[in-house]
Amino acid sequence: MLDINEIHNSNLEVVELDGHELALKSFVLFTNIDNKNVIAITKEYINVSFDYLSKYPQLDNEVVFLDEISFERLYNKFIEARTDKQMSDITTTTEESVVEDDDMDISEFLKTSADIMTDEESAPIIKFVNSLFYQAIKKKSSDIHIELHEFKGEVRYRTDGVLVRHIELDKKIMSLVVSRIKVISNLDISEKRIPQDGRTAIKISGKTLDIRVSVLPTFYGERVVMRILMQSEDIPSLQNLGISSHITSQLATLTQNSYGMILVTGPTGSGKSTTLHSLLQTIESPQTNIITVEDPVEYKSDKINQIQVNEKVGLTFASGLRSILRQDPDVIMVGEIRDSETASIAIQSALTGHLVFSTLHTNRAPAAITRLIDMGLERFLISSSILGVLAQRLVRKLCDTCKEEDFLAEHHLDEFDIAEDIKVFKACGCKECNFTGYIGRVAIAELFVLNDNIKNALQQNVDDEQLMRLAQDNGMISLSSQIKDMIKSGQTSLDEAIRIGIK
After folding, report:
1. Are 271 and 279 contacting, i.e. CB atoms less than 8 angstroms apart?
2. Quick one: which of 57, 76, 345, 390 is 20 to 30 A from 118 by CA?
3. How far apart are CA 187 and CA 198, in angstroms?
């Protein structure tokens, strides 16, 4: 019986039927509705679906129409289920087939405009590289590392800020993998003596991802690191960053200023770029001209103008910033203040009617002020232009399934101000957390707002510790106290606090 009414149900699950692998190509899906196996199709592909069904009269399941959104979600689930199934034997296929195909024509690669999860005609190396991207997305990894050692090659993923080994393979296979990656990134496949940088784009389940590729020659062969760059729609809102609500509300208030500078500080991988783009999202509008200069452009957005630093042709942060000022900007975002020239231009921009966002590499928020002083900036310029400094970290959360009680040494109890009767936990590792002991990360941050007291203190010769005490007297909750609270509540471990460098 044919149900001509479109059903909306975005939570349908995959029902696998052996012998009907071609159904997916014909947009015929098998699912379960009201405890009954049905055939799901959509009006958009009705002709090709009916053509398939006419060839299999033995299929007596009820046929139902799904609306476009529900069908697309179910279709993507089928794609993922099929890919998962293929991943289990892809390594074996690669090892058996590739060694004989050293001279294969790898110029016949999968075009970047095609969806890597729907290609079935690929050579084993192509399938393997595609699987690396797929697994990285599934594991929510930020980077893929491919390394060659003396007798083997290794692939590692950076997940939640930590590298985790994925697979080991023969060096010959890994060399072909590197060649494949160089081809799709438009790099010179014959050049193996100098570093190369490139970009590529992949499409998985209808979603396009930009990949930044870096190839570096090492003693045993070329090493590849691929950074997965996010799209603008993946940027979390200011409220969804995970930072406490009283800090995000203060940040939102600071962004309402028409001029001044807001700095985000922290080590590499602490989420500074994501926070900056979240701040830009809160203020973007048709009436606002927002221009950024970044290295690299990590989040592509249609609503802001983005400049990519290119030092080979002289386009640095400083020169890009000078050019931006001639483009009548309202808001400027500088990816990073690396030198005194960039710092000076950014400060002058903030003083002359522009709202400026940027990042610095300092551990604590008040340290950003002394860093700018060390760069040669005058104290009165800093106090007149800086609105606030946000220092942040991304802290891994313990897996609730496998975490175990930890017994700390006395010096750790004193160092982190933890009473002996408080239970603390450590990472263990299980299937749920991919044997890492942690699932997901949460952002913690301290916001240093320059009020009148601090501006007056800046005119004197104050150091980081004095600024820190002033900030805490004015209500700033330090990163140290936040990480201690997380340890005491069992959210994270002492090892994680030490790893991210907070005491």
Report:
1. no
2. 57
3. 6
